[in-house]
Design a protein that fits this description.
Blueprint lengths: L5 E3 L5 E5 L20 E2 L6 E6 L4 E9 L6 E7 L4 H4 L3 E2 L3 E2 L11 E11 L3 E7 L9 E2 L1 E5 L2 E2 L9 E5 L3 E5 L2 E5 L4 E12 H14 L5 E4 L8 H4 L1 E9 L7 E10 L3
Antiparallel strand pairs: 1-13, 1-18, 2-4, 3-11, 4-10, 5-9, 5-12, 6-7, 6-8, 6-10, 14-17, 15-16, 17-20, 18-19, 19-20
Length: 259
Amino acid sequence: MIENPFLLMSAPVAFETTNFQIAATPPTNLTNDNMDMEWRSVGLADVYVVMRCAAPVDTIAILHSNQRATDTYRVRAAATVAALLTNPVYDSGLVPAYEGLKLEPYTTKSILDLGQPVQSLYWRFDFDSPGHPDGQVKAARIVMGQRFEIPTGINYGWEKLVLNDSAITTGPNYEDVDEYPSRPGVKSTLGGMDEATFNRLDALLMQAGSAKPVLYAPEPDNLDTAQHWTVYGRMKSWKFPNPYHNWWDVEVEVHGLRS
């Protein structure tokens, strides 16, 4: 389990192959950041996707799936598609989709710590959800890469945000609502960084800017809240106060794309 708060900007990920796919909800949807464009499996038997990612990977997140706590997934990596089954360089074994508490309307965020960086072109994801009432596995995004852990932790007083884009039109004696689902956000200060740590985080945030989403887990080791507080979305503001020489605070606000 990852104990420290972390940020992860995904390395480039591409879809390679699967057994069956639905034209309207293909596995390529797992590579884009439109959270309404899900991948959906054909049934529940032998559900897998193979992705390509050439970058070093120490963290994988399968985001906004419908897997339950009793469901499992498995991740394997290899130099060829065939070797994923015969000679993988990494094999997670069966992993619970999540542990701890998750309440509606939050969706499952499966976060896998590989323990050390693994670099291999092909990655296979198997999903086991026996008897799932939806009759299929659904997920919105696979994020892979090397995370940035914040060794000094997150400062007290951070904020959990509720964001809602519903449009409300009011008039005499009425309100008309164009309703959209709420999304989570996090606003926090990551304090007390030495300059070497700050320089690496600064470079990551400069790469992401406001255009590229990041996965932000403020308390990944808190199983009662990790499913609710972990967000994947774009940064809306960031500041770098320098209270002392060679000592930095980082203020970030990330708005999730989906709950």
